[in-house]
Amino acid sequence: MKTSIVWFKTDLRLHDNETLIKAISQSDEIIPVYCFDESNFVTTEFGFKKTGSFRAQFLLESLIDLDRNLRAKGSGLLIIKGRPEVEIPKIVQQYKATKVFAKKEVSYEEKQTEAKVQEELFKLKCELKIFSTSTLYHAEDLPFSIKDIPDVFTNFRKKTEKDAIIRAAFDAPKEIKSPEIEPLQLPTLKELGLNFEPIDSRAVLQFKGGETKAIARLNHYFFETKCISEYKETRNGLVGANYSSKFSAWLALGCISPRFIYDELKKYETQFEANESTYWLVFELLWRDYFRFMMKKYNSKFFQQSGIQDKGIIVNKHNTHQLQEWIDGKTGVDFVDANMKELKLTGFMSNRGRQNVASYLCNDLKLDWRFGAAHFEQQLIDYDVCSNWGNWAYLAGVGNDPRGNRYFNINKQSTDYDKNKKYRDLWLKS
């Protein structure tokens, strides 16, 4: 009897999950496992939680949904807690598994954990098989090796669009053979060291985790409202659910994959229309790919103050008071404050808002950009390690921006994007 473990991480879905499909095809039975890695719930060197309560709640909802979907196919989800390099081998021994299937990691800490798990499994004569499941374009299909990927996005995009193909998404498995798996036993937020924080009623969306909700959101944004056909015109919006796709939270935890979105987008274009807006969603998914490939290329450099450019930047002496005012939305700059209050009370902020508050922290306060990135890591419901640190480095002038320091004139931005003060009034009148 060939038994394998499927180690779920940020790939909490059945559709387009190569890891799961390959495990099923190479095994007589599988045991789906999720490990609450204790290192994801510590306080970082910057003084912020690695996972805040909005994202933790979203994760718990996603795991409930994954377990439900697995059980509908004859399986279920086993929950373990601790360090993966300790806990995964215990499950391997318990079930006499010969292989562990998992998604491939690219960022520094995650890769270290992956290597430690592999080392422990090797001692048990158990193989770790990893698959790239997070990007639109597969790394193997790119027209350059990872070390030769251009450091300017436009160069990467043009060549990739011209010379690379997007693979078809995998279908969800029809059935999964597993031994009997005990009912789902999730830790509470309190056990994770967090308190429940409800999403403020003014939020753009009451985000709920899980693949089922992700697909429902896609169907709403594409087929029910056809909002995708105006995405390019509305994507800089600030108020309401439909100015942008809002797929990011589900993408971050892998409740939905970029290729699944792409396949559905192609169906939409065939049925209704293909225009600049439908293309623009692919363009944004390509940015997401790019930061992931850049993280693979530069690894730990993305977490250093000098970034991938090894560039000295002028940073003021750390000012805890100024940082806290920024966090609490009390800087006195109304556009920055409105955005930071939205983040604090909902775990979300528009892309336009993110660029402005980051520019303010880096260019006006001249604080170390990594404190901003670490606060976002704690606070964002859609935190993705590659996109978050890649974007912050970009705004700080030490990442992939060929123009260097990108300064936002916040008064002009607020006039351009919040002309009638609708957004600022929504968040500052409380």
Automatic annotation (TrEMBL):
<keyword id="KW-0274">FAD</keyword>
<dbReference type="InterPro" id="IPR036155">
    <property type="entry name" value="Crypto/Photolyase_N_sf"/>
</dbReference>
<dbReference type="InterPro" id="IPR014133">
    <property type="entry name" value="Cry_DASH"/>
</dbReference>
<keyword id="KW-0157">Chromophore</keyword>
<dbReference type="InterPro" id="IPR006050">
    <property type="entry name" value="DNA_photolyase_N"/>
</dbReference>
<protein>
    <recommendedName>
        <fullName>Cryptochrome DASH</fullName>
    </recommendedName>
</protein>
<comment type="function">
    <text>May have a photoreceptor function.</text>
</comment>
<dbReference type="InterPro" id="IPR002081">
    <property type="entry name" value="Cryptochrome/DNA_photolyase_1"/>
</dbReference>
<feature type="domain" description="Photolyase/cryptochrome alpha/beta">
    <location>
        <begin position="2"/>
        <end position="136"/>
    </location>
</feature>
<keyword id="KW-0285">Flavoprotein</keyword>
<dbReference type="InterPro" id="IPR036134">
    <property type="entry name" value="Crypto/Photolyase_FAD-like_sf"/>
</dbReference>
<dbReference type="InterPro" id="IPR014729">
    <property type="entry name" value="Rossmann-like_a/b/a_fold"/>
</dbReference>
<dbReference type="Pfam" id="PF03441">
    <property type="entry name" value="FAD_binding_7"/>
</dbReference>
<dbReference type="Pfam" id="PF00875">
    <property type="entry name" value="DNA_photolyase"/>
</dbReference>
<dbReference type="InterPro" id="IPR005101">
    <property type="entry name" value="Cryptochr/Photolyase_FAD-bd"/>
</dbReference>
<comment type="similarity">
    <text>Belongs to the DNA photolyase class-1 family.</text>
</comment>
